[in-house]
Amino acid sequence: MKYLILLFSVGFLPLCAQTAKIIRGPYLQNFTASSGVIRWRTDVPTESRIYYGKKGPEKNLMVEDGGLSTEHELKITGLKPNHTYFYSIGNLEKVDNQWFQTLPKTGSEKAIRIWALGDFGTGNRNQLLVRDAIKAFMKEKPIDAWIWLGDNAYGSGKDVEYQKNVFDIYQSDFFPNTKLWPNPGNHDYKDNKDSKKLAYYQNFTMPTDGEAGGVASGTEAYYSFNLGNVHVVSVNSEETSEDGTSIIDSTGLQAQWLKKDLAANKLPWTIVYFHEPPYSKGSHNTDTDEEMTKVREQIVPILERYQVDLVLAGHSHSYERTLPIRGHYGIDASFDTSKHVVAKESKPNHYLVDKIKPQGTIYIVAGSGGQLGKSQPDFPLKSSAYSTVALGGSLILDVKGRKLVGRWIGSDGRVHDEFSIQK
Ligand SMILES: [Fe+2]
Q1: Calcineurin-like phosphoesterase domain spans which residues (predicted)?
Q2: Is the pLDDT of residue 334 over 70?
Q3: Residue 336: which of 383, 380, 275, 276 has the closest Cα?
């Protein structure tokens, strides 16, 4: 009887499913403490099916979609928080080392590791070195969230560029088990100004209903999520808002949502990231660039109002970390340490947050994950605590309880900058 059932099942499988190959993914999207989305692409249309389970080879649970497609996207629900699951995609490829870990519950003080990478999808040697430096570094602790700071796929954010310069490069070591939270850069918008048609929006699944934490944004252009006791906000610095205003207008739809989202946040840590930095003397100059000036004048006051701890950006192909600052909306020459630095150090680069007088915000440009650029003649910023354009690298943030440690890992595998905030 068992034999007959097996014959019956195989006989009704679509013929193409038996020969299909995975040509992209699997990759992890929109993960929470209880659910997550896994996506992949096949060379010919097939059904979508994922086997998963707690004990590696057993994989006794399954989700599926019987429709035939080359673009596969399945949501798994009912997962336990902070648990590791192993999975495999349909019957296509037996890969037993594929796993994902759900996030801890919101508010949990479990240690969280974030990898922030900017301006990377070039296919150049620096991109590979930066990747390999993190691969070695993460052996001691895996990454809980992989944050992209924009300009993900050069030169125009086309799907073929995403394949060659992003998926092919990070697939074996990162995509199957690293939860990704993307942000678009100006290069990701060059393919098509109509955002719905961009490869960026076709390729990724972001939370729009507040399902990962925070206030529902109603759009994939900007969104927020929680990682344990860290609230993270992905702000868009690139497209035109749905109401026709600049998306970085302080009264536009995005800013209205941002204010609501930050006001509702009760977690002790807040990190905001977007592509175009408010402060940089790297390959772009925030004194003269119109868009970056707008970010500084329109968005920075909102971030300060809600005491955001850390702001991450790319765009300039440099690493630039400011002191904790507040109230500086003019050009770099107008920066005054005695007026704009709001910080208390336990020792250099290690900050203690005073409950009575909260510290300023630290702004970091980490845009040398692939691209490497020149700097302005007056590099670094007057507000700089540490900056370099000498080599590429990316940023690792470790948050545990009331302590945040940031380390910038160079393409040589060494830690070149380290800072901490203790609350
Ligand atoms: Fe850029």
Answers
A1: 112-319
A2: yes
A3: 383
